[in-house]
Amino acid sequence: TSPGECVVQDDMAELLQKYEEAEIIIWATPLYQCGISSVMKKFMERTTPTLLPFIDSEGKGTYGRPYRNPEKMGNKRHVLISTCGLPTTKRNYEGVEAQFNNLFGEGKWEKIFCIEGELLGITQLDGLTAPYLDLVKAAGKEYREHSEIPENIRAGLAKPFIEIPAYLKTANLSWGIDDTRMKDMDGGLMAWGYMK
Prior knowledge:
The chain is built from eight helices and five strands. It is of the alpha/beta class. Helix 4 (about 95-105) links the parallel strand 4 (about 75-85) and strand 5 (about 110-115). Helix 5 (about 125-145) runs antiparallel to helix 6. The relative contact order is 0.11.
């Protein structure tokens, strides 16, 4: 049975109360091995007390556990913000999207996926990445006020910072180790060119 309280005695009771009271939940995680971080997964698992222990039919052959407080949880808005070091979302985020669709309902949550995220941590590239971060802020404001991110902002967020071939060379050089598969590289000059 699930009495609505976590059996582990720590600060999760306070976090669950905040989780239930919030109008918008912002989930933030790097992409690790095509999935969410273990820290975020652990938090998700510990929200089980917000559900009743019963299994209900949801229609179309699916089943789930109903919310303990549907008036608080049923219309909650969710936003997932995630970054990855890869140059595309394809074959990388499908599992994450499936998990969020299963948890919160398809089309009932919003996402911001930042590709080429390794470039965000390079201060010399602030001129390249700052416009993207401004778009993220604009997306947040639009979502808060209108419950959706406009298509023009969504399109801007989906664009890579730099072209994929150049990103691959730059990202691969950033590890600081020789890749014997790439004998024709420029020894880091290309990466340095972006940082000037």
